[in-house]
Amino acid sequence: MAGKHFCVPFADARDADWCLAHGQSVMWDNGAFSVWKSGAVIDWNKLYAWLEARLGQPHWAVVPDVINGSIEQNLELIRQWPFHKNVSAVVWHLNEGIDHLFRLIDLGFSKVCFGSTEEYEPVGGPAWERLMYTVFNELDRRGLIGVIWLHALRGLWLAGDIFPFSSGDSTNVARNFKNTNRYVCPERMARRIDAIQCPITWSARPEQRDMFDAA
Fold first, then answer.
1. Cα 138–Cα 150–Cα 136 angle in degrees, nearest 5
2. DSSP category for residue 29
3. Dmax of the chain from CA atoms?
4. In 3D, which of 33, 71, 64, 69 has the Cα closest to residue 46?
5. What gap in Å lies between CA 115 and CA 152, rounded to an integer?
6. pLDDT value of residue 31
7. Cα four-point dihedral sign 11, 42, 88, 109
8. Torsion of CA 168, 163, 193, 12, to 10 degrees
9. Is the pLDDT of residue 175 over 70?
10. Model-wide pTM > 0.85
11. Model confidence pLDDT, tens digit, residues 82-109
Protein backbone atom coordinates (compact mmCIF):
# COMPACT_ATOMS: atom_id res chain seq x y z
CA MET A 1 0.00 0.00 0.00
CA ALA A 2 3.02 2.32 -0.05
CA GLY A 3 2.37 5.37 -2.22
CA LYS A 4 -1.41 5.37 -1.67
CA HIS A 5 -3.56 8.05 -0.02
CA PHE A 6 -4.66 7.31 3.53
CA CYS A 7 -7.26 8.48 6.04
CA VAL A 8 -6.08 7.98 9.63
CA PRO A 9 -8.53 8.72 12.46
CA PHE A 10 -7.33 10.09 15.76
CA ALA A 11 -9.67 7.57 17.41
CA ASP A 12 -7.59 4.66 16.03
CA ALA A 13 -4.15 5.89 15.06
CA ARG A 14 -2.16 2.66 15.22
CA ASP A 15 -0.82 3.00 11.66
CA ALA A 16 -0.36 6.77 11.68
CA ASP A 17 3.42 6.89 11.48
CA TRP A 18 3.64 4.13 8.87
CA CYS A 19 1.15 6.01 6.68
CA LEU A 20 3.06 9.24 7.14
CA ALA A 21 6.34 7.58 6.13
CA HIS A 22 5.00 5.62 3.16
CA GLY A 23 1.79 7.32 1.95
CA GLN A 24 1.46 9.79 -0.88
CA SER A 25 -0.76 11.88 1.39
CA VAL A 26 -2.61 11.47 4.68
CA MET A 27 -5.91 12.93 5.78
CA TRP A 28 -5.85 13.16 9.58
CA ASP A 29 -9.44 12.62 10.74
CA ASN A 30 -10.44 14.23 14.03
CA GLY A 31 -12.48 11.23 15.23
CA ALA A 32 -15.78 13.09 15.59
CA PHE A 33 -17.77 10.33 13.86
CA SER A 34 -16.52 7.75 16.35
CA VAL A 35 -17.49 10.10 19.19
CA TRP A 36 -20.96 10.53 17.70
CA LYS A 37 -21.51 6.80 17.43
CA SER A 38 -19.97 5.74 20.75
CA GLY A 39 -20.63 8.67 23.04
CA ALA A 40 -16.91 8.93 23.86
CA VAL A 41 -15.20 12.24 24.64
CA ILE A 42 -12.11 13.54 22.84
CA ASP A 43 -9.59 15.85 24.45
CA TRP A 44 -8.96 18.20 21.54
CA ASN A 45 -5.70 19.41 23.09
CA LYS A 46 -4.39 15.85 22.76
CA LEU A 47 -5.42 15.90 19.10
CA TYR A 48 -3.47 19.13 18.56
CA ALA A 49 -0.39 17.65 20.22
CA TRP A 50 -0.71 14.49 18.12
CA LEU A 51 -0.91 16.52 14.91
CA GLU A 52 1.99 18.86 15.70
CA ALA A 53 4.68 16.67 14.11
CA ARG A 54 2.41 15.12 11.47
CA LEU A 55 0.68 18.03 9.77
CA GLY A 56 2.17 19.66 6.68
CA GLN A 57 1.69 19.58 2.91
CA PRO A 58 0.58 17.35 1.24
CA HIS A 59 -1.04 16.02 4.43
CA TRP A 60 -4.07 17.75 5.92
CA ALA A 61 -6.35 17.52 8.95
CA VAL A 62 -10.05 17.88 9.68
CA VAL A 63 -10.81 20.63 12.19
CA PRO A 64 -12.66 19.29 15.28
CA ASP A 65 -16.44 19.31 15.04
CA VAL A 66 -19.44 18.10 17.00
CA ILE A 67 -21.98 16.17 14.96
CA ASN A 68 -25.48 17.44 15.86
CA GLY A 69 -23.84 20.25 17.81
CA SER A 70 -24.81 23.88 17.37
CA ILE A 71 -23.33 26.13 14.69
CA GLU A 72 -21.80 28.33 17.39
CA GLN A 73 -20.28 25.31 19.11
CA ASN A 74 -18.57 24.26 15.89
CA LEU A 75 -17.49 27.80 15.04
CA GLU A 76 -15.81 28.00 18.43
CA LEU A 77 -13.82 24.85 17.65
CA ILE A 78 -12.76 26.45 14.35
CA ARG A 79 -11.63 29.57 16.23
CA GLN A 80 -9.54 27.42 18.59
CA TRP A 81 -7.83 25.51 15.77
CA PRO A 82 -4.07 26.20 16.05
CA PHE A 83 -2.91 25.19 12.55
CA HIS A 84 -2.71 26.95 9.19
CA LYS A 85 -5.80 26.98 6.99
CA ASN A 86 -3.82 25.65 4.03
CA VAL A 87 -3.44 22.24 5.72
CA SER A 88 -6.90 22.16 7.27
CA ALA A 89 -10.49 21.34 6.38
CA VAL A 90 -13.64 22.57 8.09
CA VAL A 91 -16.78 20.44 8.33
CA TRP A 92 -20.16 21.55 7.05
CA HIS A 93 -22.88 19.46 8.68
CA LEU A 94 -25.74 18.89 6.27
CA ASN A 95 -28.38 20.18 8.70
CA GLU A 96 -26.68 23.56 9.16
CA GLY A 97 -28.17 25.16 6.05
CA ILE A 98 -26.65 26.22 2.74
CA ASP A 99 -25.98 29.78 3.93
CA HIS A 100 -23.68 28.38 6.61
CA LEU A 101 -21.84 26.31 4.00
CA PHE A 102 -20.94 29.52 2.19
CA ARG A 103 -19.91 31.20 5.44
CA LEU A 104 -17.48 28.33 5.98
CA ILE A 105 -16.18 28.62 2.42
CA ASP A 106 -15.55 32.33 3.02
CA LEU A 107 -13.32 31.51 6.02
CA GLY A 108 -10.64 30.49 3.51
CA PHE A 109 -9.74 26.97 4.60
CA SER A 110 -8.20 24.79 1.91
CA LYS A 111 -11.00 22.21 2.01
CA VAL A 112 -14.61 21.83 3.14
CA CYS A 113 -15.90 18.44 4.25
CA PHE A 114 -19.55 17.42 3.96
CA GLY A 115 -20.38 15.78 7.29
CA SER A 116 -22.93 13.48 8.86
CA THR A 117 -26.24 14.32 10.49
CA GLU A 118 -29.11 12.07 11.48
CA GLU A 119 -31.55 13.77 9.12
CA TYR A 120 -29.47 12.92 6.04
CA GLU A 121 -28.35 9.39 6.80
CA PRO A 122 -27.34 7.34 4.97
CA VAL A 123 -24.82 9.04 2.70
CA GLY A 124 -26.24 8.67 -0.80
CA GLY A 125 -29.79 8.05 0.43
CA PRO A 126 -32.88 9.87 -0.92
CA ALA A 127 -32.81 12.76 1.59
CA TRP A 128 -29.06 13.19 1.14
CA GLU A 129 -29.38 13.19 -2.65
CA ARG A 130 -32.18 15.77 -2.68
CA LEU A 131 -30.08 18.11 -0.57
CA MET A 132 -27.03 17.58 -2.78
CA TYR A 133 -29.02 18.63 -5.86
CA THR A 134 -29.82 21.93 -4.14
CA VAL A 135 -26.26 22.41 -2.83
CA PHE A 136 -24.48 21.69 -6.10
CA ASN A 137 -26.97 23.78 -8.08
CA GLU A 138 -26.15 26.73 -5.81
CA LEU A 139 -22.41 26.09 -5.95
CA ASP A 140 -22.68 26.06 -9.74
CA ARG A 141 -24.65 29.33 -9.78
CA ARG A 142 -21.85 30.93 -7.76
CA GLY A 143 -19.14 29.59 -10.07
CA LEU A 144 -17.54 27.46 -7.33
CA ILE A 145 -17.69 23.99 -8.90
CA GLY A 146 -14.10 22.87 -9.44
CA VAL A 147 -12.81 25.86 -7.44
CA ILE A 148 -13.53 24.76 -3.86
CA TRP A 149 -12.09 21.43 -2.69
CA LEU A 150 -15.09 19.46 -1.43
CA HIS A 151 -14.49 16.27 0.54
CA ALA A 152 -17.21 13.67 1.11
CA LEU A 153 -16.80 12.21 4.59
CA ARG A 154 -17.58 8.47 4.34
CA GLY A 155 -18.26 9.12 0.66
CA LEU A 156 -15.47 7.40 -1.24
CA TRP A 157 -17.98 5.01 -2.77
CA LEU A 158 -19.46 8.03 -4.60
CA ALA A 159 -16.43 8.05 -6.92
CA GLY A 160 -17.75 7.89 -10.47
CA ASP A 161 -21.18 9.24 -9.48
CA ILE A 162 -22.61 12.55 -10.71
CA PHE A 163 -21.46 14.70 -7.78
CA PRO A 164 -18.22 16.67 -8.32
CA PHE A 165 -16.49 15.92 -5.04
CA SER A 166 -12.73 16.44 -5.02
CA SER A 167 -12.09 13.56 -2.62
CA GLY A 168 -13.74 11.18 -0.18
CA ASP A 169 -12.83 8.70 2.52
CA SER A 170 -13.93 5.22 3.51
CA THR A 171 -12.98 2.21 5.63
CA ASN A 172 -13.58 -0.05 2.64
CA VAL A 173 -10.08 -1.36 1.93
CA ALA A 174 -8.89 -1.43 5.55
CA ARG A 175 -11.86 -3.49 6.68
CA ASN A 176 -13.13 -5.43 3.71
CA PHE A 177 -10.03 -6.89 2.06
CA LYS A 178 -10.12 -9.69 4.65
CA ASN A 179 -13.89 -10.16 4.85
CA THR A 180 -14.44 -12.27 1.74
CA ASN A 181 -14.26 -16.03 1.23
CA ARG A 182 -10.82 -15.65 -0.24
CA TYR A 183 -8.11 -13.14 0.46
CA VAL A 184 -8.30 -9.98 -1.68
CA CYS A 185 -5.17 -7.92 -2.23
CA PRO A 186 -5.73 -4.49 -0.59
CA GLU A 187 -3.45 -2.81 -3.15
CA ARG A 188 -5.63 -4.15 -5.93
CA MET A 189 -8.76 -2.81 -4.23
CA ALA A 190 -7.15 0.61 -3.81
CA ARG A 191 -5.97 0.66 -7.43
CA ARG A 192 -9.52 0.07 -8.67
CA ILE A 193 -10.85 2.89 -6.50
CA ASP A 194 -8.09 5.27 -7.64
CA ALA A 195 -9.03 4.63 -11.27
CA ILE A 196 -12.59 5.96 -10.83
CA GLN A 197 -12.97 9.73 -10.68
CA CYS A 198 -15.76 12.18 -9.98
CA PRO A 199 -16.70 14.72 -12.66
CA ILE A 200 -15.28 18.24 -12.40
CA THR A 201 -18.43 19.89 -13.79
CA TRP A 202 -22.07 19.92 -12.78
CA SER A 203 -25.29 20.02 -14.81
CA ALA A 204 -28.15 21.63 -12.89
CA ARG A 205 -30.68 19.15 -11.55
CA PRO A 206 -34.33 19.80 -10.70
CA GLU A 207 -34.88 20.47 -7.01
CA GLN A 208 -37.78 18.87 -5.16
CA ARG A 209 -39.82 21.50 -3.36
CA ASP A 210 -41.58 20.85 -0.08
CA MET A 211 -45.26 20.08 -0.71
CA PHE A 212 -46.20 22.80 1.81
CA ASP A 213 -44.23 25.55 0.06
CA ALA A 214 -46.33 28.40 -1.18
CA ALA A 215 -47.15 28.16 -4.88
1. 20
2. E
3. 58
4. 64
5. 7
6. 85
7. positive
8. 20
9. yes
10. yes
11. 999 999 999 999 999 999 999 999 999 9
